[in-house]
Amino acid sequence: MRIMIKGGVWKNTEDEILKAAVMKYGKNQWARISSLLVRKSAKQCKARWYEWLDPSIKKTEWTREEDEKLLHLAKLMPTQWRTIAPIVGRTPAQCLERYEKLLDAACHGYNDSELTDDPRRLRPGEIDPNPESKPARPDPVDMDEDEREMLSEARARLANTKGKKAKRKAREKQLEEARRLASLQKRRELKAAGIQTVKRAKRVRGMDYNAEIPFEIKPVPGPYSTDMEFREHLHQSNVSFAPSSLTEYEKPHKKDLEDQLMKEDVRQQRSQDRKTTPSAVQQLRALVVSNTGKHKRKLELPPPNVHVSGLENLINL
């Protein structure tokens, strides 16, 4: 069983397919874009676009100002290459690669122009760990069968600029036009044979806005009688007029209700104060005393159990 491992060096054909797919599907549907490329995944397609194919990426030589800015930002924000990259104007992979190259040059004491044997350069047989940020490999003269099939399928899919609904609408429109031409040819042949056919108008369900006025009320023929309006005017003039204000129809305002309640509370407080004055208290106390005096009972004690002789005996003891 053949197992296809996705990844590896990018080829010129894959780059062109990826560019065309991004133009059609945008930069948010990477799964659909990767379905056009047999040997690449959605994550690899996204990385390839943002690391190499994006037109805003600078691929020129690094200047001295960019190197100074890179070293200064790397000191302020170490290992934060995604934050440093937009400030420098390069991709994160470019910033990391340039920073490591500058460190190697500073450690070994040679300039960038004197670097002939880069220790990070791949040896024969080694696999590139980051192929998305490297130039594409040119296409061979005789491509594999898989590449030809991938290219033909991508060409067919990308050439379809209309979706399923648009294709169905176009097909229905074409069938309708063919049906109209067939009926027209049939009527012409019948007319040439001497048979006259009357084209029946389609019955429109509901209201035909082209043939009639919607909701039309036709007036009665003859002069319009205004007796009803005259009688109504007389009836309104005979009704006695009763003036009324707007407050009768509107609800009382909340503030007015609060003022009325406050006035009622003040009135109750004043009446309570009048009841609690000293004269009122004296009158109330006298009333209570008079009421209690009328109904006071006589004190009734039980008969004594010890007489005078008994008390004398107790004293002698």
Automatic annotation (TrEMBL):
Which intervals carry biased composition (Basic and acidic residues)?
A: 117-126
One Gene Ontology biological process: DNA repair
CDD domains with a match to the protein in the record: SANT (cd00167), SANT_CDC5_II (cd11659)
The family database entries (Pfam families) matched by this protein are listed as:
Myb_DNA-bind_6
HTH myb-type domain boundaries: 2-57, 58-107
Asked if DNA repair is a keyword of the record, the answer is: yes
Q: Which GO terms describe its molecular function?
A: DNA binding
Q: Which InterPro entries match?
A: CDC5L/Cef1 (IPR047242), Homeodomain-like_sf (IPR009057), Myb_dom (IPR017930), SANT/Myb (IPR001005), SANT_CDC5L_II (IPR047240)
Looking at the record, the residues that make up the Myb-like domain are 2-53, 54-103
Q: Where is this region: Disordered?
A: 113-149
Highest rank taxon of the organism: Eukaryota
For this entry, the protein name equals Predicted protein
Species annotation? Micromonas pusilla (strain CCMP1545) (Picoplanktonic green alga)
